[in-house]
Design a protein that fits this description.
With 220 residues, this protein is of the alpha/beta class. It has 2 domains: 112 residues, Response regulator (Rossmann fold, 3-Layer(aba) Sandwich); 94 residues, Winged helix-like DNA-binding domain superfamily/Winged helix DNA-binding domain (Arc Repressor Mutant, subunit A, Orthogonal Bundle). It is built from 8 helices and 12 strands. The strands form 3 sheets. Strands 2-1-3-4-5 form a 5-stranded parallel sheet, sandwiched between helices. It starts with a strand and ends with a strand. The model has no long low-confidence stretch (mean pLDDT 87).
Length: 220
């Protein structure tokens, strides 16, 4: 069952969309602000997002760049052509103007889901920390550090699940394709080196060791 996240503070529109999507066999999760959506995203793991722009807290424009790898259909009352162009170039999969025909929106959703997931996130961000997986660099402001392949894989996994404690065995399993040479014995050393590099960027300890379990990101 495909899972759709609706991010819209208009309860009436949200209820209408949820009813229509549920009738079509989709699983639906709701968020009523940009901040709430980003908090829910790691656990929800939706297949597609319907995003309003005029949201309390973080706006839709601020939320969109943080949803790399997930098809996002913007559903907004903004009708300016330049707004649409900017959002489509900024990563949106489609743009539907309010008011809209539900049948048309359902058709657009079906098309996007048939196309599969979007590309992997170009960058990962948490607070002031940014990771560029392709360039294998982490940065805080202008300060940058180069990461090894294993360090990059570990940080990418932790930043993709920022509020979860990832066990040591799960880290080894989920980075095995990127770094088959990482073992249970060497993992502690890789994490220690990674924490040292990140600490040198701004003096903060970005990775928290959860005793006897594993590791998680700490937003500072």
């Amino acid at each position: 069952m495909k899972h759709i996240l609706i991010i819209d503070d208009d309860v009436h529109i949200g209820d209408m969309l949820q009813e229509a999507l549920t009738r079509e066999g989709y699983r639906v999760t709701r968020a009523y602000s940009g901040t709430e959506a980003l908090l829910a995203l790691p656990a929800a793991r939706p297949d597609l997002v319907l995003l309003d722009l005029m949201l309390p807290g973080l706006s839709g424009e601020e939320v969109l760049p943080k949803m790399r790898g997930i098809p996002v259909i913007v559903v907004s009352a903004k009708v300016d052509v330049q707004d649409k162009v900017d959002l489509l170039l900024g990563g949106a999969a489609d743009y539907v103007t309010k008011p809209f025909e539900v049948k048309e929106l359902l058709a657009r959703i079906a098309v996007r889901l048939r196309e599969g997931p979007g590309p992997e996130a170009a960058y990962y961000t948490l607070g002031d920390l940014t990771l560029d997986p392709e360039g294998r660099t982490a940065a805080v402001g202008e300060a940058r550090t180069r990461l090894t392949r294993t360090e990059c894989a570990i940080l990418k996994l932790l930043m993709a699940n920022p509020r979860q404690v990832i066990t040591k065995s799960a880290i080894l399993d989920r980075i095995s394709l990127d770094t088959p040479d990482c073992t249970e014995t060497s993992l502690k050393m890789h994490v220690s080196n990674l924490r040292k590099k990140l600490r040198e960027l701004d003096g903060n300890d970005w990775i928290e060791a959860v005793w006897g379990i594993g590791f998680k990101m700490r937003e500072v």
